[in-house]
Design a protein that fits this description.
The complex is a heterodimer of chains A (100) and B (201). Chain A has 100 residues and is mainly α. Chain A has two domains: 61 residues; 34 residues. With 201 residues, chain B is an all-alpha fold. Chain B has a single domain, classed as Cytochrome c oxidase, subunit III, four-helix bundle (Four Helix Bundle (Hemerythrin (Met), subunit A)), CATH 1.20.120.80. Chain B is built from six helices and no strands. In chain B, 46% of the residues are buried. Classes of the chains: A mainly alpha (100), B mainly alpha (201). At the A-B interface, helix 1, helix 2 and helix 3 of A face helix 1, helix 3 and helix 6 of B. Chain B: One of its GO terms (cellular component) is plasma membrane. Chain B: Its EC number is 1.10.3.-.
Amino acid sequence: MEKEVKRFPVSHVIGFLASLALTFIAAVIALKTSLSFKAIMWIIGSLAVIQAGLQLFMFMHMTEGEDGKTNIINIAYGVFVAVVVVVGSVWVLTSGHAAH
Amino acid sequence: MSANVNTSLPLEYQTHQSRMNILGFWIFLGAEIVLFATLFAVYAVLYQNYAGGPTHQDIIMIKEVMIQTLLLLTSSFTCGLAIYEMRRNNVKGLISWLVITLLLGAGFLFMEINEFIHYIHEGATMQTSAFLSSFFVLLGTHGAHVTLGIGWAIIVIIQLIKRGLTPVTARKIFIIGLYWHFLDVVWIFIFTFVYLKGMVG
């Protein structure tokens, strides 16, 4: 576990600047370009995942402490269930027989 | 509770009880991810069911939403700085950054409530369409979390001022910090998959 004795919170500032950049890039791509809906959603969706990762690792110190591995497994499982619930619901309810 | 004190660790990790509490809170956050996933799933299924009511492009005020996003993102950063100052044993810095965090959070909440009032005046209420029902439930659940977080943080700050920085108060501040960062994580996905998606599609 790191002991923070540094004079300047480098990782926080980097995380903040990167988050700002990701937010603005996503906004510009969504609002100012004429890419297809699918392409835009893939790009800004990926940017959102990267930014969420920044928060978890650089701000929340998810991996520190004796339970760091447990935290990662727990959050990874939470994300897995989230993806199954969202993608599964959209798949079942907007395609095939359910759409008719 | 005072057993197993390890002074080589940051204050909030020094007792076994604190380490268990922090682990338990991470498990709670795992459940929160799933809670929000169910609301995102409902929204993703129903987001084009306008029922003759307003669409995304009719109502979304993207400029205000950008400001809300920046307020919450900055508050997540200042909350990180608060924990950073706590680990340097700088109580004044810790309290100052926590208060700034809460002011930014309150600014976010104020703008979000105004946004909702604006929508309702435009005739876009929870009862208007499936799109707006799922929209208000998802956004409202997040806003309720922010409101709860502000109240919780105020109570913890009062305790910090009364009792000073101890392994127990440090742990409580660390945990409210995790909660606050988590709310920003949820907002990133609301910003992307509700607002930006609505402006594109």
